[in-house]
């Protein structure tokens, strides 16, 4: 098995360890392996999307980066059908987007948010 070094903020590592314990993993490596498997499965699901898709996209981000998040929302305004925004802590916001549009555009939106360093969490949920 290969060994991979990853740099992550200390607070995030504490969250990973806590989540791993709650889910019954024996250590960090098991927790990271499970997370990576989930990421790979999500990527595979995205590549299989075709045609017009209905979806919900959930995003948690830092409030101070709201202008940047708003720019992303406007880029994909043609597939954004509805949105809910809520400040869940003093510095964290929750966004819920209802989407309808071409699968490639929905995947592109999800990827832009997923790869943004100011996004703490994102999840694409497909309506079938």
Describe the protein in words.
The chain starts with 9 loop residues before the first helix and ends with a strand. Strand 2 (80-87) and strand 3 (92-102) form a beta hairpin. The model has no long low-confidence stretch (mean pLDDT 89). Strands 2-3-1-4 form a four-stranded antiparallel β-sheet. The chain has 128 residues and is of the alpha+beta class. The protein has two domains: 10-45; 50-127, 2-Layer Sandwich (Alpha-Beta Plaits), CATH 3.30.70. It has four helices and four strands, in the order ααβαββαβ.
Task: Briefly say what this structure is.
The protein is of the alpha+beta class and 128 residues long.
Q: Would you spell out the secondary-structure blueprint of this structure?
A:
Blueprint: H1 10-23, H2 28-48, E1 52-62, H3 66-75, E2 80-87, E3 92-102, H4 103-114, E4 119-127
Antiparallel strand pairs: 1-3, 1-4, 2-3
Instruction: Report the CATH topology name of the largest domain.
Output: Alpha-Beta Plaits
- Average predicted confidence as pLDDT: 89
Count of helical stretches: 4
Count the strands? 4
Indicate the percent of residues in helices: 40-55%
- The top level CATH class name of the largest domain: Alpha Beta
Low-confidence stretches: none
Structural class: alpha+beta
Please indicate the count of domains.
Answer: 2
CATH superfamily of the largest domain: ACT-like. Chain A, domain 2
């Amino acid at each position: 098995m290969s060994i991979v070094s990853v740099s992550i903020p200390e607070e995030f590592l504490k969250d990973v360890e806590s989540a791993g314990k709650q889910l019954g993993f024996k250590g960090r490596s098991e927790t990271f392996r499970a997370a990576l498997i989930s990421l790979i499965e999500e990527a595979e699901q995205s590549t299989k999307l075709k045609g017009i898709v209905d979806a919900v996209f959930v995003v948690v981000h830092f409030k101070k980066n709201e202008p940047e998040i708003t720019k992303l929302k406007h880029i994909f305004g043609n597939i954004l059908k509805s949105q809910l925004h809520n400040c869940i802590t003093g510095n964290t916001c929750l966004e819920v987007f209802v989407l309808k549009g071409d699968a490639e555009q929905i995947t592109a939106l999800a990827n832009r948010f997923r790869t943004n360093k100011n996004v703490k969490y994102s999840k694409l949920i497909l309506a079938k």
